[in-house]
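Need FAD/NAD(P)-binding protein's 3D structure for a figure. Predict it.
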Amino acid sequence: MKKLAIIGMGPRGLYALENLLVELSYTNQNVAILVFESTEIPGAGNVWHISQPDSNWINITERGLKGISSRPKIILNDVTIDAFPSYHNWSNFSQSDTDPDTFPPRKKLGVYLNERFNSITEVLKKTDFFQLIKSDVISLKLDKDKIKVETTENTWTCNDALLTIGHQPTELSDQLKAWEKHVNKHNKLRLFNEPYPISQLTGIKNKENLTVGIRGFGLAMIDVMRFLVINKYGNFKITDYNTYKSDYYKIETQHLKLIPFSLDGLPLAPKPLNKSIDDWYKPTTSEIEFIRDAIESFTNTNKDTHDIHFLTTPIAKVGARIFKTLKDKVITNSSTTKTIESILVKYLHDSDYTHKLIQDSTISTYQLIQSYIDMALGNTKISLDYCIWQVWRHCQPLLHSTISHAQLNTNTIKKIIALDEHSKRFTYGPPIESMQQILALVDAKILDLSYTNDPEISLIEEGWELKNASNNTIVCHCMINSVLDSPQLLKINSPIIKNLLKDDLIQPVHSELGIETSEDGYVISNIKNHNVPIAVLGRLAKGSVLGVDAISECFGKRIEDWAKGYIKKLKE
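Structure prediction for FAD/NAD(P)-binding protein:
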């Protein structure tokens, strides 16, 4: 009997296992399945861990989780695995178009994922072809045409291996290395190199007279912020449920200061309040097809291009039509559709491009956040940048599916990924309530936004001295790095990836990107005349595929393609 190792049992691993079982049920093939997962919550993994605090919110609307569809009933030989409901059915989701979107705590989705996994293992643990091994895999070794899976305790020989291991640690940046040395010299200082698990911050949660620097101004910063300030000294209170305007009330004085900063200092923009407003930015079905045709007709014949106009031009055309259609809802509607399209192409190719239709990002950070909140509420004139990135968000599933494995020049892929990453300030934006909480903390003089834009940082005995453009300074006694590393394969320092690189079993698409894979997920190796029976799905394949960070992608076509490809291999 052939053996398959699935290494990593988060959401992608779960969906891969389900699709494998479904595909096996259509054949007479028998496969021994070994699942390797070191966390105690299979199906959820670390990101969706069920013990994390309620202050860690999903940044995707519950409405947007419709892609987590139900699992069908599976009959495999004499084994029956019952169907499992979609997330929406499981959570009894119901919402009108004008109801505000909801953003539940991440652990709620974790409970769903874990229950979905357990519904499989309760059946499979009684069989002789399934085994769950609670251990970290440290290496995969190619032994002729098989794979040796090594943990610290044991070694298993398998015919194929699937990696769905998600976020991996990377080498510390020079800045973080310098900070570590500084903290080692001054043991009263505290440094956290990663924001998660957030529970590691419990020791400083209720400290008095503490100034905390937070490296990064994104979603993880918000999780860190919310965890630290919802404490015995105070909490948030919504004062207007129409706008989620909030106050931070203090039970007693803590003298806590939070100082976030990033390279550009630009804040996140919240998602639209509800489906009704979100639909303002939704392309029509024919427009989606227009964008798809434009991309595919180009990529099928111009694979060596270094230009991404084939992508930006059709998006700009659709974005211009939508902006013009919004009429009196936008900043000004005097420009022609063609002019707006031209402005958008320039903006998509140059993030520093300015125009009267584009939000002025040089105003104070507080004002900028308030402006984006008002746009998300539909209470103010919409800027062209806010509009196009909401349009981009609606197009992302299409972009990810059409550009993944398009075999474009690697530098072109890098440009596209950079543009998609740039969009995340808007497309991966948080709930309105999160941004209102930031403003509430500024009003309460806890969060200081005057150092957000790339401050000068000096290491002094008391900690980290930050200096802003106005030459104001502040000293942080504790520093939290909330910047999550991008999946640059050559900088990852987990044993399993370092060993795969050392043995030449994997290679990067680009020096700054992830593992090169084929459409069915199998790695493209440097080893000549030999097919390496290792597949990679998810974050580590960034570059070969786009859209690796969204939970909806964990339940998508790439995982289904892998399962079909694996079964096809079995038949050969």
